[in-house]
């Protein structure tokens, strides 16, 4: 994929597009834990110079999406069990709260959209598409959380997703999924019923169960 400068686009905008592309790849598990990256390799892959590659890497290291060793090696994180447990605990705190705040604005159009996304999750699971599963699963959750109208809280949740992206790719292989997560049905049922305690429980279980199994 080449990140080419568009007509009238500044260098800063091109750098930002490279950063967002790399960020999405990491968040959606396109890179496995411990995958090494080089500025030269990024430059070749995306057709950019070293400067935007360096800036994108710097931003992703600051967000915890990449690690930078004392020797200068850049890689996706290999999370310890303690770190996985910490990030799972953050998801358990942030996401039920986002869902609770979204509930008063969770009208039928949103529920129908989430049902459609869940059907797409079933399709990518049938294809064995790990990256597609992670992407559509996060889309399912983001569709709900956007209704919370809590941008700072959602940004924190997305930073956690970003740090977990490669680990989620590894977890997908462990779980051997054959259908969408069962708790998605519970989330949808709680939304239809306007049941906040059930929604909080379904979200908390959905976002932590697999991670805590991995850390066990």
Q: Can you offer a commentary on this structure?
A:
The chain has helices spanning 11-27, 39-46, 50-62, 81-102, 108-127, 130-145, 151-175, 182-193, 196-215, and strands at residues 36-37, 67-68, 74-75. A hairpin with a 5-residue loop joins β2 (67-68) and β3 (74-75). Mean pLDDT is 90; it is low at 1-9. It is mostly helical and 216 residues long. The protein has 9 helices and 3 strands. It is globular, with a radius of gyration of 18 Å. The N and C termini lie far apart (38 Å). The protein has a 3-stranded antiparallel β-sheet with strand order 1-3-2. α5 (108-127) runs antiparallel to α6 (130-145).
Count up the helices: 9
Morphology:
globular
| Tally of strands | 3
**Measured on Cα atoms, how large is the radius of gyration?**
18 Å
Strand order of the largest sheet: 1-3-2
Question: How far apart are the termini?
Answer: 38 Å
Could you report the average pLDDT, rounded to the nearest whole number?
A: 90
């Amino acid at each position: 994929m080449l990140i080419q400068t568009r007509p009238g686009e500044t260098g800063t905008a091109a750098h930002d597009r490279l950063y967002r592309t790399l960020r999405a790849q990491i968040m959606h598990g396109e890179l496995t834990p411990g995958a090494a990256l080089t500025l030269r390799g990024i430059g070749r892959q995306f057709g950019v110079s070293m400067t935007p590659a360096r800036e994108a890497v710097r931003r992703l290291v600051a967000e915890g999406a990449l690690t930078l060793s004392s020797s200068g090696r850049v890689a996706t994180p290999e999370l310890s069990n303690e770190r996985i447990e910490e990030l799972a605990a953050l998801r358990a705190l942030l996401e039920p709260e986002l869902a609770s705040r979204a509930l008063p604005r969770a009208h039928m159009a949103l529920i129908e959209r989430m049902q459609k996304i869940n059907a797409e999750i079933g399709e990518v699971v049938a294809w064995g598409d790990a990256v597609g599963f992670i992407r559509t699963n996060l889309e399912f959750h983001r569709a709900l959380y956007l209704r919370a109208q809590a941008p700072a809280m959602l940004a924190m949740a997305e930073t956690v997703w970003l740090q977990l992206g490669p680990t989620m790719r590894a977890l997908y292989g462990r779980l051997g999924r054959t259908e969408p997560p069962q708790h998605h049905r519970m989330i949808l049922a709680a939304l239809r019923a306007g049941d906040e305690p059930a929604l909080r429980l379904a979200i908390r279980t959905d976002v932590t169960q697999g991670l805590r199994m991995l850390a066990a």
